[in-house]
Write a structure and sequence with these properties.
247 residues, alpha+beta, 2 domains, 34% helix, globular
Length: 247
């Protein structure tokens, strides 16, 4: 069976940001990007039409939010297939949005997404400078950019190989707790598993996720680095956002 992967990268831009001394907040989905990650991981699908026609690649898409958080314009910049674009838009529409602010005042905001649909083995790529082109900056040319990985999903969603059934059962319990946003309980379960298999990259990655959500920045960075060292396929995409303070 062909395994597909979906990556989502979000680029957030306050609209009239022209001075690094200004105070601003990014636009965000209701519940924050952690919630968007859970929603996308649960609902995002590879479009059957694109799958049948062997279409994959990045979808570059932007949308504009008004001061009330209402999407009033979509801009579809580039896509290899219309069904991929439609799925990207569906994921954006599935949550409500909060506008960004400039100096405490709600403002019209531009949000850029890259949805990467990958059908075949091998690397994936996207142009990090794509939205820096002046024609794609719908507001200030001095807008501030911040890339972040939002989610990653595999079609097969295979359960990792564990040393015994009890270990596997406890790991899956922790994953369910994470899906329900009970990061404290999940963290406790995973901490029990860690000494039994300290090189299990899935446990290490989930520990990093929980630590990050609980504000344990040093632990999040430590676990994400260990997950990378032990071969977790997506951990490297979270390193910059998880390692925000020195070890």
């Amino acid at each position: 069976m062909t395994v597909f992967r979906i990556f989502v990268v979000v680029l957030l831009i306050p609209s009239y940001f022209s001075s690094y001394s200004q105070q601003f907040t990014y636009p965000e989905p209701s519940g924050g990007y952690a919630n968007f990650t859970n929603v996308a991981a649960s609902h995002m699908q590879y479009p059957q039409h694109a799958y049948d026609n062997d279409k994959d690649g990045p979808v570059y898409i932007s949308f504009l939010l008004d001061e009330n958080g209402k999407i009033f314009k979509f801009i579809e910049w580039e896509s290899s297939h219309s069904s991929l674009t439609n799925e990207a838009r569906r994921m954006i529409d599935i949550v409500s949005w909060k506008p960004g602010t400039i100096n405490g005042v709600k403002d019209t905001s531009q949000v850029n997404f890259v949805f990467i649909f990958q059908l075949h083995a091998g690397g994936y790529s996207f142009d990090q400078k794509y939205f820096e082109h002046p024609e794609r900056k719908l507001y200030s040319p001095h807008s501030y950019y911040s890339w972040r990985w939002v989610t990653y999903k595999e079609h097969s969603e295979k359960v990792p190989s564990f040393s015994d059934e009890a270990f596997k059962t406890q790991y899956l319990k922790a994953v369910d707790l994470i899906k329900n946003k009970d990061f404290k309980s999940a963290y406790a379960e995973l901490k029990q598993l860690y000494p039994r298999d300290p090189k299990n990259h899935e446990v290490l990655f989930q520990l990093a996720v929980c630590a990050n959500e609980l504000g344990k920045s040093k632990a999040a960075c430590r676990y994400i680095n260990k997950a990378i060292e032990n071969g977790n396929p997506v951990a490297v995409n979270f390193k910059d956002s998880f390692c925000t303070s020195p070890d």
